[in-house]
Amino acid sequence: xxxxxxxxxxxxxxxxxxxxxxxxxxxxxxxxxxxxxxxxxxxxxxxxxxxxxxxxxxxxxxxxxxxxxxxxxxxxxxxxxxxxxxxxxxxxxxxxxxxxxxxxxxxxxxxxxxxxxxxxxxxxxxxxxxxxxxxxxxxxxxxxxxxxxxxxxxxxxxxxxxxxxxxxxxxxxxxxxxxxxxxxxxxxxxxxxxxxxxxxxxxxxxxxxxxxxxxxxxxxxxxxxxxxxxxxxxxxxxxxxxxxxxxxxxxxxxxxxxxxxxxxxxxxxxxxxxxxxxxxxxxxxxxxxxx
Amino acid sequence: xxxxxxxxxxxxxxxxxxxxxxxxxxxxxxxxxxxxxxxxxxxxxxxxxxxxxxxxxxxxxxxxxxxxxxxxxxxxxxxxxxxxxxxxxxxxxxxxxxxxxxxxxxxxxxxxxxxxxxxxxxxxxxxxxxxxxxxxxxxxxxxxxxxxxxxxxxxxxxxxxxxxxxxxxxxxxxxxxx
Lengths: 291, 178
Fold this sequence. Notes:
A: alpha+beta; Uridine Diphospho-n-acetylenolpyruvylglucosamine Reductase, domain 2; Enolase-like, domain 1; four-stranded antiparallel sheet; 13 helices; 14 strands; B: alpha+beta; Ubiquitin-like (UB roll); globular; metal-binding (chain B)
C-alpha cells in the first residue's frame, strides 16, 4: 500500500502545468488535493510517471461572484467552499451537498476541481454542477475553453479533458433569492459514496407555480444525470404532492443504473424515485425563504 | 485481504523501482515546533516521512488509503490524513502530530479526558481520534453527542464501540471550556 515511484514537478502557473502535461502526455497526472489520486496510486490502480502539482499556483483557489455567476477555482478546498459566505449566498446547494463529501478531514484537502476532474459518478459535486448547468473552464496549449457540465462527463472516471488540459475552475449560475435547495442521499455510512444521491433546487413564482427547477442524480449511471423529464413535469405547475409524485415517476426512464456489490439496479431505481420525490418536496418547502 | 495481498507489489519490483527512477526533493517540514530537512522521494507519503524520517511513530498507519483515520494530523492547523498527502507536498508546512499534544509528561485536557473515560482500549486509533477531536473542539467548543459522532465518523475504532470515545470528547469539551 505504497505509491509507486513517480517523478514530481511543482507548477508555478497554469501555463507551466499545461506545458508539463503536453511534454509528458497521458503518463502525467495533475495532483490537486490528492484525496482520490494518492489512494489510487497506493492501490497501484494509477501509475503516473510524473505528478504535476498545481497546489502552489496563485489564484486557483478563488471563490467569487461575478456577473450573476459564482466562480470557483479548481484548487478551492471543499471545506473552504462549504464554509464560504459568498458560495452560500450565490449557490446554497453547494455547501449543503459538500457536507456529504467524505469527512471534514477529507474536505480540508479535497478540491472542487479534483472532484470534478476525477468524475466519480457517485460523487456529489459533479451532480451539483450538472443540475445547475455549470460550465467547466479548461486551459490547454491552445488556450481556454468552457464546457457545459452535461458535455463534460463522458463515463465513469472519464471526461472530455485532453491529456494536456488543466481544469482551472467552474462557473455556476447564481440561484435567485428564495430558491429552496435539497440534497438527499442513501449511503451505508455517513461520508461514504452514495448508493444514490439527488440534488434539487426549486424556485416558486409569486402565484405559487414553479418557475425554476434544477434536478440531478448520482449513482444511477456512468455519469451524473440531469433529470430533464422530471424538471419539465414540475416546471410551471403548482408543486402539489400529486405533481411531485408524477415528476418522480419520470425518473425511471432517465436513468441507467448498474448492478454492483452495493445494490442491484432495481433497488437503485426504486431509491432514485423516492429520493427525487423527497428532495423536490424538501426544496419546495424551503423555497420562499429570504437568504 | 488475500485479494489485496495477491495484487500487491513484490519486494523485487519495489527495489527496482527505487533504483531505476530514483529522484529526490529536498524538503523542510516543521513538526511540533522542530524543523526537519531531508531528501525525499516523491512517492513517500507524509505519514511515512513522519514515521521513518522524523522518527515520530505516534502517527499510526492502518489502512493506508484514507479510510481508517488513524494517521490524522494537523497541517497548517487543519486536519489531514497523512497517508493521503505526499511528503513533498508538505514542504514548508507546519505540522502537529499526536506527539505535539502533551507538554512533556503532562497530558493535555483532551488526552486526560480519554484517560479518565476509558476512551481507548488497544490504542491504535487513538492518535487519529485525538487529532480529529482537536480540530473538532477548536471549531465547535460545545458540541452535542451527535455532532461528536459525526465529527469522528471518519475515524474507525475496532475496540471501544465508540461510546467511551464520545464521552471522552464531551468531557474534554467541558474541561476546555473551564
